[in-house]
Amino acid sequence: CKDKAGMLITMLRAAGFDSYPAMTMAGSRIDRIPADQFNHCVVIWRRGPGDLVLLDPTWVPGVRELWSSAEQQQEYLMGLPEGADLKTTSVSPPENHYFRVRGRSELAADGTLTGTVTVEAEGQSDARMRRVLVRNMKNQWQSYFERAVWDLSPKAVLRAVETVDPYDIEKPMRIAIHYVIPDYAVRTMERLVFIPVVARHLFYDRGTNAHLFMKLEETAERKTPFVTPCSKLAEFSEEITLPKGYQIAHRPAFKSVSGPAADFCAQYAESGGKLKFQEKLSMKKRIYPAGEWSNFRDAVQSVKSVAETPVVLAK
C-alpha cells in the first residue's frame, strides 16, 4: 500500500495536483496514544483551501468509489506540511450502497414458478457483486448463478443470465437471472404454499449479504460495539401472477422496525390476480455502539423472518 500510495502521489504531483500521504488502521480503530497503530497507507488530495479528499489506490481499483466506504468511521492521520491531528472518516449514507432486487414471476396451478430476477447494486454493494465475478475464472461464473437458483430448489433450472461487463466500472452492476422451478410451491388438494423468490434472498452468501450470517441469537443486551462491512440499503420487490382459480388465503404481515442503527419494513398486497411483495432494510453505519444492537438485531431478524414465512393460496 505504501508503494501504491507513493506512486499515486508522484503521479498527482506531476500532473499539478497537491497531494500527500496519510496513514490509517484498516479494519480497526486508532486510539489517541503515541504508538504504532497504522497498517495502511493512503493518499490526501488537497482539492482546494480546506478541501481535503481521501484516495485509496490499493482498495478502489475495480470499485466505483475513489475512497472505499468500507473504511467509513475509521481514524486516519494526514502527513500535511503544516501538521494535522487525528481525524475520522464520515459515515457514508446507505443510499450510496444500494442493493436492489426486483422480481417478476408467474406461478402455475401445478406449483411451477417461472420468472426473472434483476439485481442492481452501487457503491460497496456493487463492489461485492462485481468481486464475485472478476476474482473468479469466467468459466466459473455460470456455476455461481446456478448455485444461487439451486439454493431455492434442487429442481431449479437456470434459463439465462444477463450481466453488464464486470470489468467496466462506468455503470453500476446489473444482473438478470431467468429461471423456472418445477414444484416450487407445496401443493395440497386445495392449496398452494410458497415464499416469493425475492423474499428468500437469491444470493445467500457472506460476501453479498454478510448481515444475514451475524450471530443474532445473542441477547439484546450488549457491552461492546459491533461492525458490518458497510452501510447498506437493501430493497426487494416482486410481482407474482397467481394461477387462475386461486386466491390468497393467508398473507403474512410484518411489524416495521425503526431506530438509529437500522430500519425495516415489508408488506404483501394483492391486485388484479397478482401478489405484490415489497421489503426494505436500511443499515445506517459500518460501526455501531453497543446500545444500538437491539434495534439492529430486530431489523435483521425481521428480514430473516420474511424469508421463512410462506404465503398460502386456496382454490
How would you portray this structure in words?
By secondary structure, this protein is α+β, with helices and mostly antiparallel strands. It is 16% helix and 35% strand. Strands 8-9-7-6-13-16-15 form a 7-stranded mixed β-sheet. The protein has a 5-stranded antiparallel β-sheet with strand order 3-2-1-4-5, with helices on one face. A hairpin with an 8-residue loop joins strand 4 and strand 5. The longest helix is centred in the last third of the chain and has 14 residues, at 293-306. The chain is elongated, with a radius of gyration of 23 Å. The termini are far apart. The model has no long low-confidence stretch (mean pLDDT 94).
Layout of helices and strands:
Elements: H1 2-14, E1 18-24, E2 40-48, E3 51-55, E4 75-78, E5 87-88, E6 98-107, E7 113-121, H2 123-134, H3 141-150, E8 157-163, E9 173-181, E10 186-187, E11 191-194, E12 226-227, E13 232-241, E14 247-250, E15 262-271, E16 274-283, E17 287-288, H4 293-306, E18 311-314
Parallel strand pairs: 6-13
Antiparallel strand pairs: 1-2, 1-4, 2-3, 4-5, 6-7, 7-9, 8-9, 10-11, 11-18, 12-17, 13-16, 14-18, 15-16
